[in-house]
Amino acid sequence: MLCANPDLKVYRGSQLCWCAGALAKAYEAIGGPVVYYGKPYPAVYDAALKAAGRPSRALAIGDALITDLKGAKAAGLAALFIADGLHGEEIEPYTPEHLGEMFAAAHVEAKAAMRALKW
User: Fold this and answer.
1) Is 91 part of any domain?
2) Residues of the chain under the 70 pLDDT cut
3) Is the CB of residue 32 less than 8 Å from the CB of residue 46?
4) pLDDT at position 87, please?
5) 75 by DSSP, 3-state: which?
6) Other CB atoms closer than 10 Å to residue 95's CB: what's the count?
7) Would you say the pTM of this structure is higher than 0.90?
8) Which tens digits make up the pLDDT trace of 58-80?
């Protein structure tokens, strides 16, 4: 199996749904081989940075600690955490101290956090 999005869960509108990463984990559990591509795996960061012309600075943006922020840290990138995304139910109280505790527990870091990413 090729898993192009290792997220376990994602939001589709306001509904939290299982994602391809959960299917890949189940397939692995029954002995199937899986190749992962996407956050947090290095190949997706390499491809994105190459496509962007290898900038001297880049910002990873994501709402999942174990994929988005973990991958950013491993790639040496600064990260912006979107707090009301996947972990929306866990972020209260929305304080620097509480977010810091969440990041420490997941062994990740973020330069900043915001509730939602809006243009």
Assistant:
1) yes
2) none
3) no
4) 83
5) helix
6) 10
7) no
8) 999 999 999 999 999 999 999 99
DSSP 3-state assignment of 49?
helix
Q: What pLDDT does 105 receive?
A: 96
> In CATH, what number is assigned to the domain containing residue 85?
3.40.50.1000
Cα separation, 19 vs 80, whole angstroms? 22
What percent of the chain stands above pLDDT 70? 100
**80 with 112: CB under 8 angstroms?**
yes
Q: Residue 8: which of 36, 46, 45 has the closest Cα? A: 36
**28-to-17, 42, 56 alpha-carbon distances in Å:** 20, 20, 37
Domain, as residue range, for 59: 55-119
Burial (0-12, 13-18, 19+ Cβ within 10 Å), 30: exposed
